[in-house]
Structures are given as C-alpha cells and as structure tokens.
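Help! Submission page says 'invalid entity' but I think these are all valid:
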Amino acid sequence: MISKSIEKYVNSLKQKKYRIEEGHYIAEGEKIAEELLHSDQVISKLIATRDWFSANERLQRRKNMKVIEATEQEMKRISGLVRPSNVLLVVAIPPVEVDEQVVLKNLSLVLDGISDPGNLGTIVRIADWFGIPYIFCSEDSADAYNPKVVQASMGSIARVKVTEMPLADLFRRFPSMPVYATALEGESIYNATLSKSAFIVIGNEARGISEHISPFVTRVLTIPKSGGAESLNAAVAAGIVCAMFRKD
Amino acid sequence: MISKSIEKYVNSLKQKKYRIEEGHYIAEGEKIAEELLHSDQVISKLIATRDWFSANERLQRRKNMKVIEATEQEMKRISGLVRPSNVLLVVAIPPVEVDEQVVLKNLSLVLDGISDPGNLGTIVRIADWFGIPYIFCSEDSADAYNPKVVQASMGSIARVKVTEMPLADLFRRFPSMPVYATALEGESIYNATLSKSAFIVIGNEARGISEHISPFVTRVLTIPKSGGAESLNAAVAAGIVCAMFRKD
C-alpha cells in the first residue's frame, strides 16, 4: 500500500523544483525499470503491482531500496502516463563530474535550448546509441529528469551523462575543441571531413543557435535539403549529424 | 461564432471513422495554416479568432472556403491541442494517385506499422525535407490525418503523398524495385552502395519488420551502434537512412 506521504512525495517529483530539492527523479514502465535495476544507478524506491513482482522476482533485491507493493488504483494516482505502468522507480539524480580527458577524446552533444522533453529524451537515446558519453544542456533546455524526458530516453538516461551549464563556460573550458553546428546554410555535411572529437551544437526547435553561442562555433554544417520542409525535427537532425560523424 | 453543428462536426473529425466518412481532416496552428493556405489543398473551412484575421488579411481569400470568426473560448472547444491555437482549418483529404513513373525514379518510404502519430508526422516531415514524393503505409499504421500526425508534420502533410495499402500489393506491383530495410544486424549503411530509386521500409517501433514483409526485402542495412541503447527512435532511424541515401 502507498501511504499518503509517499503519494505526495512521488507526485512532487514531477516538478523540477522538487527534483532539485530532493535530488531524485521518477522513472516508469517495465523496460525502463528493468534497465535501471540492472544499472549502477542509486534507486531509493521500487513501487510496483503484485503482478509485476511475481514476474520480476530476480530484479527486486537491492541495498537501501524501499520496496512497496501497490494496487493498480494506487499506481494510477502516482503515474504521469496516460496508461499507468505497473512499476515506478524513485532514482537518485547522479552527480555529473566532467572528465576532461573523456571530453577531449570524444564527441559531445551540446543542446542550446532544446525545449521539448520528447526531443531531449530522444536525443539522449541517440547519444547512447552512438556511444557519446556527455550531453551538455544550456540552462533554458528542458530538464533531463522531467518524466517525459526519462520516458523518451527509453532507459538511456541511466547511461549518458547529462548536465546543465552555461554553454559559454563549456566552450571556454575546452578552447582547443572544434565546435560544429548545423544551420539551413553551411557546408554540406555529406562532403565535410569531421573530427573524431568535437562539440556538436543542436539549436532550439524554433530559433536555432543562440546569438551568444554563435561566436564559439568553428564550423557550420548543413543537411542538404531537396524538398519543401522548412526544417527537420531537432532530434532527427541530431541523429543524422551523429551518424555522419560516425560514418568514416 | 461557431454553431453547435460546426463544433460537433469539427470534433468528429478527430476520429478516423468520421474523417473517412467526411473525407476531411483538421489542421491547427499558425504555421500549418499558413502553409496550407499557400498550398493547392482544398480547404473547406477557416475558423480563427479576430486577432488572427487582423494579422492575416492576405491569407483569407479562397474560393468555396467558409470563413468563421470564433472567440478564444470557442477555439478551446474545437481544439485538440493543450494550448489551443487561434486558427483551425478543415481540409479535404486529397486523393492519392500513384504515378508509377514517379515511384520508379524516386525513393519512397514504406511504413510497416508505425503506430505513434508523432513518429508518423515526423517521418512525413523527413520525406518532405529530402524530396521523397510518396509514403506508403501498412493498414495497421497510424492514420496520416490524425491531428497529432498533421501537427508533427509541420505542414509537410500538404506536400508529401501519403497513402495506405497492403504492402505486399505494393511490392508485387513494382517487382523490379529494390526494397531496403533496417535491422539491428545487417550490412553497415556507412559502406553500402545505395540505389537512387528504392523502397525504404521502416518497421514498427517495437517489433520491427513484419514477418509477411520480410520476403520482399532485398537488402538489410544497419546503422552501426557503439553504445548501450537497444534501438533508435523510428523517426530518427528513418532520418538517418534517408540522409545516407542522399549523401552520394
């Protein structure tokens, strides 16, 4: 049974303010729960229905994790999904330490005001697919631990290090790193020679790259267009750019 | 003012059954309305607030289009969006005639059970970006005129021809066309020589390519993975595949 105080606590974590205060976020759904329970993330609560527990006996054991059985009705009251899942975790937001050597040897994604949580989650999943260890988000980006981001990341949020910081500080800290951005006009990404280690900036869905970020960009790439659409979805563009960086 | 019968009619078009019966769909939002009003689509109703009309005087004139001014309250009652827009169109679903010569000379996307309307709309936008004229959808795919698809397509639904049919019939009709599909294991898309005209099959979000479609696939490609994610979002994968086909 879920107590009133647990119900209130879990629901509070749907708001960024309380996630920051409490240092925890919620992750729902069988696939994501399975991935997180197999990861090294710190999970403070596992809330699930009897059916889930019967089907997942092996997954339940963990130190310092409070295990709570809930009815379907109770799951509905804490779920953020249209179709409530039968399992929900409360997970500690991991501290992100930026290992400079890792950044210098890899591609990193830099999100300049990605505001749609679905796009952000999809981009986390792309980074995970391509083995990109870090995502740096501007402070006006969606919050990486928003339940919709966690959902769209399909568990990848447990493997990719996502951190928020003023992007100008990031670029100043790594002055030797090339900074690529995509725009409607630029060098065709199909012919460009691309670095193995670089920052790849993905601009906001509507306004693109911010003015104060542009001076840091060392190369502007474009995905050549041959049809009528004005733009590509930000996550789709991110996926295409990552694939092009990996192709050689 | 919106009459009760118009309100009922517009709301009925949120369901596929009534869209098929009436042969019309709804499109909301300033950007999409602007694109549609500039296109050759047949628009039967333009419903908007006074503010929208004052700002868009030039866009209003069209033959056989009923123009209705609505209050914000009234827009709320017909909108399908969380934040109701100030303009909504009722648009005729265009008949799709498959021009065999066009199909034979181009890439076409073939969607095998894409069930998420957001993904379908994003794929329509990708096709439009890359100048892909046709999208063929299996009968268990999301409906192309679902309001969420229209929304995610960002106006591209007016330029790309999307049609539903049994996919086996499509492949039998074009026996000489190569049929590409992506899977977790296959030939790396980075090194593959790709045709300029082909069918590109995008599988369902969870189960991939259907069993009855597999025999028609002539080449299986994979987007090489170097990280932990189990899969890529279907629209992201579609975007990467299209870019790779266009790159040479």
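Support: the input was valid. A stray whitespace character was the problem, and the output above is from the cleaned input. The first helix of chain B runs from residue 4 to 12.
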